[in-house]
Specification:
CATH class of chain A: Alpha Beta
Helix content of chain A: 10-25%
Distance between the termini of chain C: 30 Å
CATH class of the largest domain in chain C: Alpha Beta
Number of helices of chain C: 12
Number of domains of chain A: 1
Structural class of chain A: alpha/beta
Number of domains of chain C: 2
Oligomer: heterotrimer
CATH superfamily of chain A: Dinitrogenase iron-molybdenum cofactor biosynthesis domain
Helix content of chain C: 25-40%
Order of helices and strands of chain A: EEEHEHEHE
CATH topology of the largest domain in chain C: Rossmann fold
CATH architecture of the largest domain in chain C: 3-Layer(aba) Sandwich
Chains: A alpha/beta (124), B alpha/beta (305), C alpha/beta (308)
Distance between the termini of chain A: 40 Å
CATH superfamily of the largest domain in chain C: P-loop containing nucleotide triphosphate hydrolases
Structural class of chain C: alpha/beta
Largest sheet of chain C: 9 strands, mixed
Strand content of chain C: 25-35%
Number of helices of chain A: 3
Largest sheet of chain A: 6 strands, mixed
Radius of gyration of chain C: 22 Å
Radius of gyration of chain A: 13 Å
Number of strands of chain A: 6
Strand content of chain A: 15-25%
Strand order of the largest sheet of chain A: 3-2-1-4-5-6
Number of strands of chain C: 11
Strand order of the largest sheet of chain C: 3-6-7-2-8-1-9-10-11
């Protein structure tokens, strides 16, 4: 399965970035082969709609599950529609978060979080 | 999840009710108080950032803020067909003597013109629309920003300023992020309020003030943020203060204090200090100390919910 | 002629000035627009009877699922990420949409039509003295004030010879720009304090960027210090009126009284203010400004008619 993790850097040693929509990088990990690659998050500078843009991005990359700290309502709705399962982690290095996921210790997210950041219309 | 760190936002709905003076006083009281709370300050009124005028910070770091993109027409290739002006819903494309230009102030960055241009003569360009700063003040670190006039994206800049304040508070173990909010109820206010544990609404007992206090309270309620109310210049119009009291009672909001009309507040502003520093014995300072005690209680209560 | 009453800082007395100025001009040919749609207050002072109501908002996309092939073109062109295509489905996020229409224009299957999304309300009517008053009110929880202001400005046609007074929201960002755009003159209301000065500078910069003539009114004169005066002199901004700090004025305004009614001695002063504005506008680049205001009147976003 292809797993996406929001991270603050482009390596397995990077820390989990708790912000889904505006994380610095996504690390994609194949849970069977442990192959991985990092991509900068194209939504990081979005003026609004970072959550939906990031969701579209990881869906296009073929992710089937995603780990982050917080999923806002728009990101949740988009990921849910794409059939991408969401898991919440508090903190830690990407590699240890993946381990927690593999051993079934991460909680599945079934309700959207509060609009964490600037979720509203970009133009005020 | 956030290490017990709390976020308090000062709001008002109506402008000029005294948000910033209250914020500066609370920042001072937090540090001075016998229960000392370590604070990170965030000025979320990026349109008109005034908090720095009362706490005299020194800037440690200054970064450009890039706003959205705007469309630019390449005059060398443009054939003047006018498609761009026809699709623009923001009145941003203007024609003069057959030359089409985008008004950067009016452009919303939707790129509709980019896609409609039959010869690809329009491209999107990112703009630096302001700066944000990390500063040090005697009351704690301050994150603030200056948005160039006539720029949009103040909501995004508010979010950025707040995010940096929160991250620093978490990293260094500060207990409180104190956010000076913008006026109104729209985009930047929503950005300033989201994620707050508590809002303190500074109401003014005028007909306008009461009306706007209701609207900002309904906004905090809409976003699920608990609110307290204090009344500034409470003795100016007793009927207005009474109306605020009734509203608070009906909605189960705690009215945490009444700050009297006090010339000391303006004098303190002229001297660039919180009123609680410049005139510690003045009636406004007394009232602010009482308000701080109640706000602190409420913040501590919410910790164990 | 369109006069915008603005200030960087909130609570300096914009509404006080705008409402009294409206009464000082001939009421029957005056339109008052309360552009502070987040915190609209001018109706407390001018007390209009609203006879027109109209819901306004944006046109947002609605996708015809039978026609849609999920090609993803709409998501690609949307700069706001308000429309996404995931697992063969199109999702629209109305609160992210700016109503630009680009997705509709670019859909190769013609599968998108636009439907209204209500953000707020326009209301209009006459005051007892005959002023035509209109305001916009942003719905609670809605972040976007600009489309409402834009539609308020375009709502009623402005007749020749009519004076339009716009009460502008505080600050210097988009809603302020939208409220000022197309005006012939900007009155900047400030108070002589460090906050007032700081925000006046920003507002003055904005007015310069928009290339509009402006003048300053110093409210609560006597509090604070002299720095606003010094600044206006350096910046070449005329101080057109001073209203002293007077607790009786503050109390009357708190109760919702009009300044010129509670203190009739102010009426001639406001008439003089209007005369000063006219002189400055007529002396200035009148023709160029005229084109601007005509352009604004042709605001392109549609309202949703709903007269009660």
């Amino acid at each position: 399965m292809k797993l996406a993790i929001s991270a603050d850097g482009p390596q397995l040693e990077a820390q989990l970035d708790a912000r889904f929509g505006r994380c610095a990088y996504f690390i994609f990990v194949d849970t069977e082969t442990h192959a991985w690659e990092a991509s900068p998050n194209p939504a990081i500078d979005a003026r609004g709609g970072a959550g939906t843009q990031a969701a579209q991005f990881i869906a296009n990359q073929g992710a089937q599950a995603v780990i982050s700290g917080h999923f806002g309502p728009n990101a949740f709705e988009a990921l849910d529609a794409a059939g991408i399962k969401m898991y919440a982690a508090a903190a830690g290095r990407v590699e240890s978060v993946v381990e927690e996921f593999s051993s079934g210790r991460l909680k599945k997210v079934t309700v959207p979080g509060a609009s964490g950041h600037h979720g509203g219309r970009g133009r005020h | 999840m956030n290490n017990g760190m709390k976020q308090l936002v000062i709001l008002s709905g109506k402008g000029g009710t005294g948000k910033t003076c209250v914020t500066a006083a609370l920042a001072h009281l937090a540090v001075e108080d016998k229960h000392q709370v370590s604070v990170v300050l965030a000025d979320a009124d990026v349109d008109a950032a005034n908090l720095e005028l009362l706490i005299n910070p020194s800037v440690l770091q200054r970064e450009d803020f890039r706003g959205g993109q705007i469309a630019v027409i390449n005059q060398e290739t443009c054939e003047g067909c006018g498609e761009c002006a026809a699709v623009c819903r923001f009145d941003a494309v203007h024609e003069k003597n057959g030359v089409y230009q985008v008004d950067p102030i009016a452009c919303d960055g939707c790129a509709a013109c980019v896609y409609q241009c039959p010869i690809q003569a329009i491209t999107m360009h990112e703009q630096v629309v302001g700066q944000w700063f990390r500063s040090e003040s005697r009351y704690g670190p301050l994150f603030h920003a200056a948005l160039r006039p006539a720029q949009d994206n103040s909501g995004k800049l508010v979010t950025l300023v707040k995010q940096h304040a929160r991250l620093l508070a978490m990293d260094e173990g500060h207990e409180l992020v104190l956010v000076d909010g913008p006026p109104g109820i729209g985009c930047p206010v929503i950005s300033a309020t989201s994620g707050a544990d508590l809002a303190l609404i500074v109401a003014e007992p005028t007909r306008s003030g009461v009306h706007d206090m209701r609207r900002i309270f309904l906004t905090t309620e809409h976003f699920g943020v608990q609110a307290l109310v204090c009344v500034n210049k409470a003795d100016l119009y007793p009927a207005g203060t009474a109306e605020i009291e009734t509203f608070c009672e009906e909605h189960g909001i705690e009215l945490v204090g009444r700050i009297p009309f006090d010339a000391g507040v303006t004098e303190a502003m002229v001297h660039g200090q919180p009123v609680t520093v410049y005139r510690p014995e003045s009636p406004a300072s007394e009232a602010l100390r009482a308000i701080w005690a109640k706000v602190l209680d409420e913040l501590q209560d919410s910790q164990y919910e | 002629m369109i006069i915008a009453v603005a200030s960087g800082k909130g609570g300096t007395g914009k509404t006080t000035i705008a409402s009294s100025l409206a009464l000082a001009v001939s009421p029957a040919s005056t339109t008052f627009l309360d552009c502070d749609v987040e915190a609209p207050n001018a109706h407390f002072f001018l007390e209009p009877t609203f006879s027109q109501h109209e819901e306004v908002g944006l046109l947002i996309p609605q996708v015809d699922e039978e026609r849609c092939t999920a090609c993803g073109r709409c998501a690609e062109v949307c700069q706001y990420h308000a429309i996404v295509v995931l697992a063969g489905k199109v999702l629209v996020f109305p609160e992210l949409c700016h109503g630009c229409g680009s997705c509709t224009l670019n859909c190769p299957e013609d599968a998108i039509k636009e439907v209204p999304d209500v953000l707020g309300m326009l209301e209009g009517g006459r005051t007892a003295s005959g002023i035509y008053f209109a305001r916009g009110v942003l719905n609670i929880g809605e972040p976007m004030a600009v489309p409402i202001i834009r539609q308020l400005k375009a709502w009623q046609p402005v007749q020749d010879g009519e004076v339009v007074i716009r009460d502008v929201p505080p600050g210097t960002s988009c809603p302020v720009v939208e409220s000022i755009r197309g005006a012939d003159f900007v009155v900047l209301v400030t108070e002589p304090t460090p906050f007032g000065l700081h925000d006046l500078r920003l507002a003055a910069q904005l007015v310069r960027d928009l290339e509009l003539p402006a003048g300053v009114i110093v409210n609560r004169d006597g509090i604070g210090d002299r720095q606003v005066d010094d600044y206006c002199r350096e910046a070449g901004l005329p101080i057109m009126m001073r209203i002293p700090m007077d607790r009786r004025i503050a109390e009357a305004l708190a109760q919702g009284h009009l300044l010129v009614e509670a203190f009739p001695e102010y009426l001639p002063r406001f008439q003089d203010l209007y005369a000063q504005i006219r002189t400055l506008v007529e002396a200035g680049t009148g023709s160029e400004l005229q084109t601007q205001s005509t352009r604004i009147k042709m605001g392109s976003l549609q309202g949703i008619r709903q007269t009660e």
